[in-house]
Amino acid sequence: MVAFALRAAMKISTLHRHFVIRQIARSKKQAAVFIVCVALSIVTLIALNGFSDSVHSSLLKDARALHAADVIIRSNYDLSAAVTGHVRHLEKQGLANSVRVYEFYSVVRTAENQGSLLANLKVVEHGYPFYGRMVLASGEAFKERLRQGRIIVSQALLDRLGLSVGDRLNVGRAQLTIADVLLQEPAQPVNFFSLGPRVFVSANDLERLDLVKKGSRVRYYCLLKVADPRQINRIAEQLKALADADFVQVDTFRTAESGVKRFFDNFLFFLNLIGIFTLLLAGIGIQSTLSAFLKEKEQTIAILKTIGATSQFFSRHFIIILSLMGLVGTVLGLLSGFILQYFVHVLFAGLLPPNVKLIISAGAMLEGICLGVLVVGLFSFLPLHRLRDIRPVSILRKESFRSAKTAPYFVSVFIIFVFFIGMVMWQISDAQTGFYFIMGIALLILISAAGAQAILFVVRRLNVKPLVIRQALKGLFRPRNATRPIIITLTASLSVIFSIYLLEKNLDATYIESYPPDAPNLFFLDIQPSQLIEFSEALGRRTEYYPIIRAKITAVNGEKIIRKKERQKRGDNLARTFNLTYRNHLLTDEIITEGGALFRKDWGDLQVSVLDTVTEIRNMKIGDHITFKIQGIPITARISSIRSRKRESIRPFFYFVFPEKTLKDAPQTIFTALTVSTSDISELQTRMVQKFPNVSAIDVTETLSRFAQVLRRLSSVIRFFTLFSIIAGILIILSSILATRIARIQEAVYYKILGARSVFVLKVFALENLFLGFVSAGLALIFAQIGSWAICEFLLDISYSPFLTRSLSLIIASVVLIVMIGLLPSSSILRHKPVVFLREQTQE
Amino acid sequence: MNIIEARNLTKTYVIGERQIRVLDNVSLAVSKSEFLVVEGSSGSGKTTLISLLSGLDKPTAGRIFLEGKDITETTEDALAPMRNEIIGFVFQSFHLIPSLTAIENVMFPAELKHDPEAYDKAYALLVRVGLEKRSDNLPSQLSGGEMQRVAMCRALVNNPKIIFADEPTGNLDSENGRAIIELLLEFHRERQSTLVLVTHNTDIAARADRMIVLADGRIRPESRHEN
Questions:
Q1: B162: domain range?
Q2: In whole angstroms, how far apart are CA A483 and each of A288, A742, B209, B211?
Q3: Is B6 a domain residue?
Q4: How confident is the model at residue A628 (pLDDT cuts 50, 70, 90)?
Q5: Smallest CA–CA separation between B48 and chain A, in Å?
Q6: What is the pLDDT of residues A135-149, one digit of tens each?
Q7: What is the rounded distance in angstroms from the CA atom of residue A202 to the CA atom of residue A389?
Q8: Is residue B172 part of a domain?
Q9: What do you get for the CA distance between the two ends of chain A, in Å?
């Protein structure tokens, strides 16, 4: 009995194994495409999650090192006596140690004043940093190397000014010796969004520099190292209570925001969206290829049902088959994801410090495996379920069965939808953005589907005369075709790629490439009012001077501004520091859109004219009251007019303009913007800063050029990942060609028997793919143009150019790719001998 | 003059490690306007012979001549015009293009040679076989007999000099089969085309000008050489 059962079991397991292996072996190519689809669905997310883990681990995990302290007090104004007094008290009590840090931009000059550049100065007291290791080229300790009279600089400064360690550098009114080169700064792990290279100066030289004056744009820090870590929060709360919350931020290392972390979080967040998009398209690919794979098995399944096999038998076997293929795909996806992680590093080269180490975490692996299993399971359910509908009689009649859309179909679609939402929320953790993303993707796929449907409807009814075109169009509707999924997937993925390209081009055109020749390209900032006359004489050219008074908004119409809530808004917000100015005239590129005149003569109270951009941040109208705080002094002004700019330009503009008499005597600095020929910038900059060391000079064209490089690098990263979504479309094309291989061979054979040459057959297949390419790329471009225009118009507020010539080249490139992909597997079909096919058919 | 001539044809297939000789040193000549039947049991080499004579396949040894031209080494593409204008095929399994309607299937060979009257000729043929009302139907919407009639019309639209019919009634019932054969013979007589017909049916064979019997890849001596 036992022996019999064992034999039966072995027989069954032998049958399963052989059946499983042969089913895969007989459809090797379809199986391969399915496996690649599974791999594709997870590869980008694994790579990005792994990269994110690496960045966080190497750069951002140690928040203390990132902020160099336990408690961070920062302000754009010198700290109040109350705050500094309490800090001294804490030090006396032995509860904490503190260091003062001053961070600002200033132009540094070579000792002979031959060259100058804008540098990012950080003046620190001895003891900085409390946490994190500053790595110097000499290998010595930072605290030992940075002393009075000496500075530590980044390599970029040495390269740009042609200096080396030991040379002297003019910083403000002091001349200091370059003591060492900074290789790594934990508090600034990346510097691609800094306007200039880093220079560390000892606080003992601060007075000598003579750069920190009233109104100067300096970031003041007081960093504390708390003796007992359990007291960190309590000490931070004490300091918060003493500080003016409108001007001073007190944070612990846990609550403080890091600009670097924010940047990477945002950028990786965006890339993750692309990863999810690719997953969705790959999921469509999985379903499409699996349907094609199973369609090839229909005859086999019908025959087996005829001889008594149950649906359970097939479910079991095909689940095993799918599991095997899915496992291979998941492993391939994991491996590819880890390899791709390396390429993400390469893409970010120059933007990341060298100490970022690639890590492959167990968490990422487990995540990848779970994702692979989920994706295969969800997108395979429907095709597997449809096997139940295959009837044995189909072996006698050549009929194709149609599955009715019953409850399992709708349940499956619902679960896929819920999974997709879950994925989005898990990856991006922002409900509102997630909602917009899901709606955007759903809309994109729906309109792609609608567009495909409409075009195919028209094509099916077209009366085309040329034979070769007619046959090509008919080929789109051959049995088992995947024309619609191909068009939908390619349209959706190409739309995203085209949109990113058009947006990049428009941003480039607005801010970088078409920098107007007459626009100011050299800005002088932090001119003190007392220097104005002398500065103007030294400059020797006519220019407009703009006074700047830094202030914060505390209330609008009596309603207090909640800074934390404001800062959470994407885009501009009212919690930041604003540059107020005063004048009684409009600038050349300004117009008044509401109010009639800049200021009202019949109003007795304080007035302010606002730029329309402010009313977009928060709804404001003429007569509303805004309360500002200037150096701790509140002033409330009534909105007298709303201005707008005639065109986007690089000219100075101000959100808030006051009458001259209101702010003339407020603490202020002055800046001016000049248009100078590129060859004169360096000399003028050096000359003026030599005479006025406290004045900062910004060469806008150079800054824009570096910014453009970073922007292009980031765009290329985005485009790289978006290309994966194209691969999903290509896989569906390959799968469709494989699925319709017999039909294609049949057509090719018939054409040849009836007297057509091979070139005719080739033309038919090529035109078929040409049509797919043109329709997909054409629809994608239309959607991309509309979407990009909307983003430029309503979100970015810049003018839009359709770049028609470049758009056309995008279409051509896409069509060429699709035709090549479509023709490659067709070459073997063309070589198929008619007689072999006929023999096989006759034997059937 | 012989429109078809085969000299010492041999065809060998290699399946795995085995060599299977399907035709063995077959020589044959078919006259213009002749009706030749090729008979033989299953596996005797009938279809292979037809494939070779029509240029669909290449012999392992021997030569084939169509209208006096040696087509043995001619490439597929070079044979295409011949297949389009001189030869018509009718197959057992019909082999209609599934995505084309009946009229489109019939028109196709004429369109390949840019015949401006392709549609008219095709329609006239369909009328002749009683399928004018089915001209816009797809093959999947036609019965076996209807499909075979469409296939016949397709074979005849370019007025070929030679018609090869490989068991054209093999997948049809007897009534439809008879109708198809009658049509074929009608066209053969009308157009004086050469008809080479593979069949098991002895009644049809009896109506041929000549019959050859294949067995084990050779023409048997009891083949009837004239009617």
A1: 34-44+76-224
A2: 11, 16, 52, 50
A3: no
A4: very high
A5: 9
A6: 999 999 998 999 999
A7: 80
A8: yes
A9: 43
Contact B77 A758 (CB under 8 A): yes
- With an 8 Å Cβ cutoff, are A477 and B99 in contact? yes
Distance of CA A182 to the CA centre of its chain: 29
- The torsion defined by the Cα of A68, A72, A78 and A80, in degrees rounded to 10, comes to -140
Amino acid at the residue A106: S
Q: Which DSSP category does A1 fall into?
A: -
The answer as to whether B55 is a domain residue is no
Give the nearest chain A residue to B116 (CA atoms): A465
Q: What residues form DSSP beta bridges with A786?
A: none
Among A7, A27, A16, A14, residue whose Cα is nearest residue A738 = A27
Spell out where A52-204 has E strands.
Answer: 71-75, 96-110, 116-124, 135-136, 150-154, 168-171, 174-184, 198-202
**A560 φ, ψ (degrees, to nearest 5):** -65, 145
B interface with A, Cβ–Cβ < 8 A, is: 47, 51, 56-57, 76-77, 80-85, 89, 91-93, 95, 97-100, 108-109, 111-113, 140, 154, 166
- Is the pLDDT at B70 greater than 90? The verdict is yes
Residue of A754, A830, A837, A843 best to disrupt the B interface, most CBs of B under 10 A? A754
User: Could you give the CA distance from residue A182 to residue A170 in angstroms, rounded to a whole number?
Assistant: 18
Listed residue (A430, A57, A501) closest to A270, CA to CA: A430
CATH code for the domain of B89: 3.40.50.300
Measured torsion, CA atoms of residues A834, A837, A838, A841, in degrees rounded to the nearest 10: -160
Task: Give A6's pLDDT tier (boundaries 50, 70, 90).
Answer: very low
CA distance A125 to A60: 24
CA angle A470, A472, A478 (to 5 degrees): 105
Indicate the Cα dihedral angle A500, A502, A507, A508, nearest 10°. Answer: 110
Helix (H), strand (E) at residue A594: strand A590-594
Which chain A residues touch B89 with a CB distance below 8 Å? 753
Q: Residue B154: list chain A partners with CB under 8 A.
A: 754
8 Å CB contact of A833 and B98: no
Q: Is B132 exposed, middle or buried (0-12, 13-18, 19+ CB in 10 A)?
A: middle
Would you list which residues of chain A are within 8 Å, Cβ to Cβ, of chain B? 398, 467, 474-475, 477-479, 743, 746-747, 750, 752-760, 833-835, 838-839, 841-842, 844
What pLDDT score was predicted for residue A841? 66
DSSP string computed for A294-362: HHTTHHHHHHHHHTT--HHHHHHHHHHHHHHHHHHHHHHHHHHHHHHHHHHHHHTBTTB-TT------H
d(CA A274, CA A730): 17
Q: A217 near A525, Cβ under 8 Å?
A: yes
Q: How many residues does chain A have?
A: 844
B57 touches B164 (CB < 8 A): no
| ipTM score for this prediction | 0.73
Is the preceding omega at residue A129 within 30 degrees of 0, hence cis? Answer: yes
Report the C-alpha gap between B25 and B10 in whole angstroms.
Answer: 5
Contact between residue B148 and residue B172 where contact means Cβ atoms under 8 Å apart: yes
Domain tally, chain B:
1
CB A713 within 8 Å of CB A795 = no
Query: How many Å apart are CA B17 and CA B20, to the nearest integer?
Result: 10
Q: Which amino acid is at A451?
A: G
Mean pLDDT of chain A: 84
CA–CA separation, A475 vs A740, rounded Å? 10
B13 located within any domain: no
What is the pLDDT confidence band of residue A844, given thresholds at 50, 70 and 90? very low
Instruction: Report d(CA B134, CA B128) in Å as an integer.
Output: 12
